[in-house]
Amino acid sequence: MDKWKTLQSNYIFKTPFGNVRKDTCELPNGHLIESYYVNEYDDWVNAIVVTKENQIVLVEQYRHAAQDFFLEVPAGKPEDGETYRDAVIREVREETGYISEKDPICLGEYYVNPATQTNKVITFFIQDAYLAYDQNLDATEFIDIHLVDIDEMEAKIYAGEINQLFTANAFFMSKSFFNGISKD
């Protein structure tokens, strides 16, 4: 199987949040796609954060595109050349005030939507977290913290109370680490 050839590429617009690029592509069979739109976004990190009391730390915030509030895992983008590890530690601390003496465990790097987006989400597992600081939010962040028992998280996902894909994905990716933690 051969890759597509990009014959031309032009930016429709560029913003601090991401760019939209219009490519003209030639497929392996010679077919042309004159307007293939690509969203260029930065990679981001997120984490399942489990407290010493076996609760998962979630954040609730308004998401304008969906016009609703969502329960999510803490997440954000690396800043100023940060490693993914350092970025997730900073984001968790800023959004929730929680920290851990244990290093975050990287569960994997996954493309968000490789058909139209360039970015990846890097998911971590943080255990034995405890509240050590007040939130330190950006001017555009309004975040409430929620603690959910490990044993209740899956039911909340299946009931639709937690319906953000990257939160559900992070939870299911981290389940193997719950052995010996969960009350089941």
Automatic annotation (TrEMBL):
Cofactor(s) required for function per UniProt: Mg(2+)
SUPFAM superfamilies found in the cross-reference section: Nudix
Transport is among the record's keywords: no
Record keywords: Hydrolase
Tagged with keyword Transcription regulation: no
Positions of the Nudix hydrolase domain: 40-171
Matches recorded under Pfam families: NUDIX
Gene3D superfamilies: Nucleoside Triphosphate Pyrophosphohydrolase
Any GO molecular function: hydrolase activity
One Gene Ontology term from the biological process aspect of the record: nucleoside phosphate metabolic process
GO cellular component: cytosol
CDD domains listed in its UniProt record: NUDIX_ADPRase_Nudt5_UGPPase_Nudt14 (cd03424)
Name of the protein in question: NUDIX domain-containing protein
Organism of this sequence: Ornithinibacillus caprae
Native organism taxonomy: Bacteria, Bacillati, Bacillota, Bacilli, Bacillales
